[in-house]
Amino acid sequence: MKLRGPAPPLGGVGPPPGTWPEPGPAYLASARFIDSGTESVRRFALETVAGATSDIEKAVKLFYRVRDGWRYDPFTMSLDPEPYVASNVLKAKAAYCLPKAILLAAAARAAGIHSAIGLSDVENHLTTEKLKAMMGGKTLFMHHGYAVLYLGGQWVKAAPAFNIEMCEKFHVHPTEFDGTDNAIFQEYDMKNRRHMEYVRDHGCWSDFPFEKVMADFRAFYPGGGGGGGGGGGGGGGGGGGGGVGGGFAGSFDPGELFRRRAIRAPCLNASCFPPSPWAGCNCPTASPWRR
C-alpha cells in the first residue's frame, strides 16, 4: 500500500483502496460498531494488556486473546447489525472473521492504539463442498475482515479469525502476530496445498461499513445471502454463507471443526472474560482453561 491517504471523518469511511489512512481521532474514537468506549470492551482490553509496557506488546496480547478466545464459526454470519458490535461480540461463544476483527480493533482503541477495519476479497482454494454449495458454487469470500493497527509508526494488518484448535485440526498454519509484520492468512497450508489468495483490496475503514458490506453480499451471492467475510478452515468450511435474514447459526456442529479438550470446565473467576466454555482464559488464577 501507498503511504498515505487523507484521514476520513467518523462514520465508517476510509481512503481509497491501496492507501493507508492518516492516524487521527477517527481511529481512536468509539464508534457504532467499534464501540471501544463501552465498559465491557474497556474492561476486556485493560485486563488483557495488563503488564504490557508498549503498544506493540499490548497489540500482541489482544490479538491472541481474540484469536483463541472465540472459536471460528463461519455459520454465525448474519445480515443483522448487532452481531457486528464489539460489545456484543464479547457475549458470543463463536464468531467469524468480521466480528473478531471488529472486537480486536475496538479493544486496541480502548488500549490507546489507533485501529481500523481492513476488508479484502479472498479466494479459498480449500472450500468444502457443503459451503460451496451454499454459496451457489462460488469460492470467493467477499469482504474478509481483519484489524489494522497503527504500531511503531506504521499500519499493520492482523487477522485473528482462525483459533488455534481449528488450525491444528485442519493442518492450517495459524496466523501469528508480532506487532511489526502483517499477520494475514497463509497462502499454503501445512500440507503445501494452495489455501488462501487475497485477490482484491477494499481499503481500511474507521468503522465497519455495515450497509456497504451487506449490500455487496446480497448482490454477489445467490439468493441475496451473505457468504463472505471469512475464509474457513482447510477441511471444515469457509467464511460466511446464508440467506437473507442471517446465516446458519444453530445448524453448525463445532465438533466438525475442533478437537475437544478433555477438560471443558469454564474458569470460576467471575471477572474472567469472556465467560464461555469455548474461550481461553487469561486470568491469573488457577484454571483448567489457562494457556
What can you tell me about this protein's structure?
The chain has 291 residues and is an alpha+beta fold. It folds into two domains: 25-256, C8orf32 fold (Roll); 261-291, no CATH class. 23% of the residues lie in helices and 15% in strands. The chain has helices at 39-48, 55-69, 86-89, 97-110, 129-134, 164-169, 210-220, and strands at 71-72, 94-95, 115-124, 140-151, 154-158, 196-205, 232-233, 237-238. The longest helix has 15 residues, at 55-69. Residues 1-11 and 224-291 have low confidence and may be disordered.
Q: What are the main properties of this structure?
A:
single chain; 291 residues; alpha+beta; C8orf32 fold; 2 domains; 7 helices; disordered N terminus
Percentage of β-strand residues: 15-25%
Low-confidence parts? 1-11, 224-291
Alpha-beta classification: alpha+beta
Please state the CA-atom Rg, rounded to the nearest Å: 18 Å
Q: Under the CATH scheme, which architecture of the largest domain would be assigned?
A: Roll
C-alpha termini separation: 36 Å
Quickly count the helices.
Answer: 7
